[in-house]
Amino acid sequence: MCPIKVDWHVKNNSKEYWRVQISITNFNYRFNYTQWTLAVQHPNLNNVTKVFSFVYKPVRLPYKSTIDTGLFYGIKSYNNVLKEAGADGQVHSDLILGKDIKTFTFKHGWAFPRRLYFNGDECLMPSPADYPQLPNSTHANSIA
After folding, report:
1. What share of the chain is helix, strand, coil (3-state, %, to 5)?
2. DSSP characters for 40-78?
3. Beta bridge partner(s), residue 87
4. Cβ(84)–Cβ(25) under 8 Å?
5. DSSP state of 84
6. Taking the model in full, what pTM does it have?
7. pLDDT tens digit string along 26-68?
C-alpha cells in the first residue's frame, strides 16, 4: 500500500517540449511527512529541462547510458511537509521535459511513469495497456 496518491497530469504538449504536473496527496491520517522523497521511473527523465517546485536529482546508474529514474524532494518551507491527509495535505510541481523527436510518442501509456516509490514504498501503477489512449491528431470535419 502506498501511503500517498500521486497524480501525473500532462498539461501541455508542444513541438519541442511537454509539461507535466506532479501532485502528491497524503492519505495517511496518522503521519505528517517531512523530508519526503519521490522516486520516479520514466523514459523521458533524461530530458528534464526545468522543475518548478521540487528539487530534482537524476539517478545515474553505471551500467545504463540513459537516465530513466529521478528523485524528487520538497523545497524547505514551501512543500517539504505533506501536513495532513486529504486535499489540504497536497504538494505539486510542474516539470518541463524536452522531446527527442526520434523516440518520443504518447502511444501506449508512454506519457506516464513506469514505477513510483515514496519514501521507499512502491506505489503500484497500472500497466501501460490500461492507460487511456491520447489522440495523435484531430479528425477533419467532413461537412462542406
Report:
1. 5, 40, 50
2. EE-TTGGGEEEESSEEEEE---TT-SS--EEEEEEPTTT
3. none
4. no
5. S
6. 0.79
7. 887 778 787 889 999 888 888 899 999 999 999 877 776 667 8
Q: What is the dihedral of CA 59, 62, 63, 64, to 10 degrees?
A: 40
Q: Which residues of the chain have pLDDT under 70?
A: 1, 64-66, 84-88, 103, 107-109, 126-144
Q: Read off the DSSP letter of residue 31.
A: -
Structural domains in the chain, sorted by start? 4-119 (2.60.40.290)
Please, which residues have CB within 8 angstroms of residue 71's CB and are 6 or more apart in sequence?
A: 37, 38, 39, 56, 57, 58, 59
Is the Cβ–Cβ distance between 122 and 116 less than 8 Å? yes
Residues 118, 97: Cα–Cα separation, whole Å: 22
